[in-house]
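Example record

Each entry pairs one chain with its bound ligand, nickel (II) ion.
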Amino acid sequence: MLKLTYLSHSTFMLDDGSHKLIIDPFITGNPTCPIKVEDVKVNFVVLTHAHGDHLGDAFTIAKNNDALVIAVNELANYAAENGCKAHNMHIGGGFNFPFGRLKFTIAHHGSSSPDGRYMGEPAGVVIKMGGKTVYHTGDTGLFLDMKLIGELDKIDIFLVPIGDNFTMGIDDAVKAVEFVNPELTIPMHYNTFPVIPADPNEFKKKVESIGKKCRVMEFGETIEF
Ligand code: NI
Ligand code: MN
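Structure tokens for the complex follow.
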């Protein structure tokens, strides 16, 4: 069993009944997020990169919950400097955590901290949890190696940005669905700010037109798989 909750932007919570994990917890200052930082109860915080709209409240949440921060080396060190427990990894590497296996993938983007420090490479992440495999791309442009990611692991749930400007827009994201070939696609990283407007239903129609399933989640909605 896997419960997946979408908190808007690129923020998702995963819950297998015994472990809870949050990815890219952008809550404070996120006009579309329906919950408060104090409401987040998790054991793990997974970060794709250090931009403010992804690092977000990670350190507060990790410290409030005594949760483990999982990130690429440079960003994990930064979390440790900020008083968090951290697990250092890097792109291409996987590790078996209590909730399941997590592997970092490439992403074409940047990754500096809000105070301007170099935070290593940005990443995507493939997480096997509760009998499902979830691929969260992080912030990225389209890249052909998504085909390889979809070949190495059968992706059940594909979380893909559609907001354009900083990441893929709708048409490139549809191509990404073709490359990854997941069971279900859920769009993310749109309508949070004026520069990333996108109609998720237009994306859904385009994904369905290539014979794939897509679900547009409400902000705050939970799906159980
Ligand atoms: Ni970013
Ligand atoms: Mn972003």
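The domain at 3-209 is CATH 3.60.15.10 (Metallo-beta-lactamase; Chain A).
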